[in-house]
Automatic annotation (TrEMBL):
<keyword id="KW-0812">Transmembrane</keyword>
<protein>
    <recommendedName>
        <fullName>undecaprenyl-diphosphate phosphatase</fullName>
        <ecNumber>3.6.1.27</ecNumber>
    </recommendedName>
</protein>
<feature type="domain" description="Phosphatidic acid phosphatase type 2/haloperoxidase">
    <location>
        <begin position="72"/>
        <end position="181"/>
    </location>
</feature>
<keyword id="KW-0472">Membrane</keyword>
<dbReference type="InterPro" id="IPR000326">
    <property type="entry name" value="PAP2/HPO"/>
</dbReference>
<dbReference type="GO" id="GO:0005886">
    <property type="term" value="C:plasma membrane"/>
</dbReference>
<feature type="transmembrane region" description="Helical">
    <location>
        <begin position="166"/>
        <end position="184"/>
    </location>
</feature>
<feature type="transmembrane region" description="Helical">
    <location>
        <begin position="69"/>
        <end position="87"/>
    </location>
</feature>
<keyword id="KW-0378">Hydrolase</keyword>
<dbReference type="GO" id="GO:0050380">
    <property type="term" value="F:undecaprenyl-diphosphatase activity"/>
</dbReference>
<keyword id="KW-1133">Transmembrane helix</keyword>
<feature type="transmembrane region" description="Helical">
    <location>
        <begin position="130"/>
        <end position="154"/>
    </location>
</feature>
<dbReference type="InterPro" id="IPR036938">
    <property type="entry name" value="PAP2/HPO_sf"/>
</dbReference>
<dbReference type="Pfam" id="PF01569">
    <property type="entry name" value="PAP2"/>
</dbReference>
<keyword id="KW-1003">Cell membrane</keyword>
Length: 194
């Protein structure tokens, strides 16, 4: 068996079984990182997903939309903070080791921002932000959807996450974004700033 460290908690045992099932796909995707040019592209995408891309978009909303942009940015910022709080709590409670830590066959092509992999915070934020920015500023949707997909792929290719980490992160990010829009269809700050 290629496992480096056995996991002893109940969550750990469940994740260990899932890790074994996902290893083949994880290795296949991680294999794209062997090519230096491909690796650099996905490192760049992942770094942009750390926040830089989203911060630039956020700064542009008030510039292009005025007070509506400020209201949209407030909604997006609150939902981003909720995403970060949620995935940090889930990671601490569920404690799934990152693929490169569990399997010597998986290479880490970047440094992790934290210890655990489930769910993918990058993917959760990317999907949440893609939906919200696309909702409040629809012309961006053509750019945001592929960018969120690339962020999710980058996390597996770079050895930071299993495919289920990014799938669950995507579902949670989408649920938070759409849930917030169901509660506040015009944005949670629309009535106070407009």
């Amino acid at each position: 068996m290629d496992s480096i460290k056995p996991l002893l908690t109940e969550h750990g045992r469940l994740f260990h079984k899932a890790d074994q099932l996902e290893l083949r796909l994880c290795r296949l995707l991680n294999g794209f990182g062997f090519n230096p040019k491909t690796r650099q592209v996905f490192r760049t995408v992942s770094r942009l997903g750390d926040g830089v891309f989203w911060y630039v978009l956020g700064a542009m909303l008030p510039l292009t939309m005025g007070m509506e942009g400020f209201a949209a940015l407030g909604h997006i910022t609150i939902m981003g903070m909720i995403c970060v709080g949620l995935y940090r709590q889930l990671k601490r409670k569920l404690v799934r080791q990152r693929p490169f830590m569990s399997f010597s066959a998986i290479q880490a092509y970047t440094r992790p921002l934290d210890l655990y992999s489930f769910p993918s915070g990058h993917t959760m934020n990317a999907v949440n932000f893609a939906i919200l920015f696309g909702y409040f500023f629809p012309p961006l949707a053509w750019l945001l959807t592929p960018f969120a997909v690339l962020i999710a792929l980058s996390r597996v290719i770079l050895g930071m996450h299993y495919p289920t980490d990014v799938m669950v992160g995507a579902v949670l990010g989408a649920a938070l974004a759409w849930g917030s829009l169901l509660l506040w269809p015009t944005g949670m700050f629309a009535s106070t700033l407009l």
